[in-house]
Every structure is written in C-alpha cells, then in structure tokens.
Amino acid sequence: MSELSHVNPEGKARMVDVSQKADTLREAVAKGRVTMKPETLRLVKANEMKKGDVLAVARVAGITAAKRTPDLIPLCHTLLLDNVSVDFDLSGDDCIEITARAKSTGKTGVEMEALVAASVAALTIYDMCKAVDKGMTISEICLESKTGGKSGTYHRKES
After folding, report:
1. What is the DSSP string of 122-152?
2. 27 and 127 in contact (C-beta within 8 Å)?
3. CA–CA separation, 136 vs 155, rounded Å?
4. Residue 21 domain-assigned (yes or no)
5. Which of these, 6, 22, 25, 140, lies nearest to 83 by C-alpha position?
6. pTM of the predicted protein model
7. What is the domain count for the chain?
8. Is residue 157 part of a domain?
9. Which CATH number do you get for residue 98?
10. Start-to-end C-alpha separation, the chain
11. Which domain, by its residues, includes 49?
C-alpha cells in the first residue's frame, strides 16, 4: 500500500508540506449533474423561477465556493486561483450538466477547488428550484481531468 500523504507516521491527520515543490501550472475539471422534472428544466431555461436567474446564481456560488475550499475541506491549502469557471449544459430533457474548471500556478493541485465548485453549483440549483421540484437529484460529481504537478495528467476513463 502506498503512503497516504495526509497521514503522519503515527497515523494522525496532517497537512501535506508542499514547500519543496516547484510551482507549475495546474488545472482541474470537475463535473456534476442535477436531474429534475422536465417542467422544472423548462422554467430554468425560460428564467421563470421565482427566486431569480438560477444559472447566474449557481455560477457565482460555484466560483465563490472554489475560493473558499480550504474553509470547507480542512487539510486543503489556501491557493491563489488564476481562474475558476462554472458552465452549464441544458441540452438534456431533464437535467443540467455542470462543468467547473479551476486553474492556478502553484505547488499543489486544484482538484478540490473544481470539485467544490461543481458541488456547490449543483446545491445552489437545487436550492433555487426546490419550491417546484423537491425530488431533484444531485449526482455524478467527479474529477474529469487534471494537469500539472508531480503526478502529471489524469483523464477520467468512460465507464
């Protein structure tokens, strides 16, 4: 079994020391999905939800969440993010696909920032639409790809 980076030799949680790592350009893409009734999606597309513009609020929530990742995930480093974006695909009949990207030049990766952005964007969509559809589901939050750093490039394999 490989050594766990967030566990010290005594088995206690620790923050990884990245001080000796070189700065590299790092980018991560995470995805997620919110499945809903077709009528709910129609309301989102028509910007007719009573709470306001669902996608605009979810985009800002996702970006803000990425910037707050170390406040939510205890052992994450505080990063200077060069860019965070959250985009939506509404081409399906009953779901919104979320793509979150995070980019930084630094000593540690931005996978958690992208995953947090996708997750919070999905939660925000749920919050904005729950008055008309409490049965929505949030699913398929996953890391699609990452580049940079010692471990190199990762691309999720289709399953």
Report:
1. HHHHHHHHTTT-TT-EEEEEEEEEEE-STT-
2. no
3. 28
4. no
5. 25
6. 0.92
7. 1
8. no
9. 3.30.70.640
10. 25
11. 27-148
pLDDT tens for the chain, residues 1 to 159:
456 677 888 888 888 888 888 899 999 999 999 999 999 999 999 999 999 999 999 999 999 999 999 999 999 999 999 999 999 999 999 999 999 999 999 999 999 999 999 999 999 999 999 999 999 999 999 999 999 988 889 999 976
Q: Which residue has the tokens 């779901």?
A: 95
What's phi and psi for 111, nearest 5 deg? -60, -45
**CB-count burial class (<10 Å; 0-12, 13-18, 19+) for 1:** exposed
Which residues does the annotation mark as catalytic?
127
Q: Taking Cα atoms as reference points, which of 81, 104, 83, 92 lies closest to residue 37?
A: 92
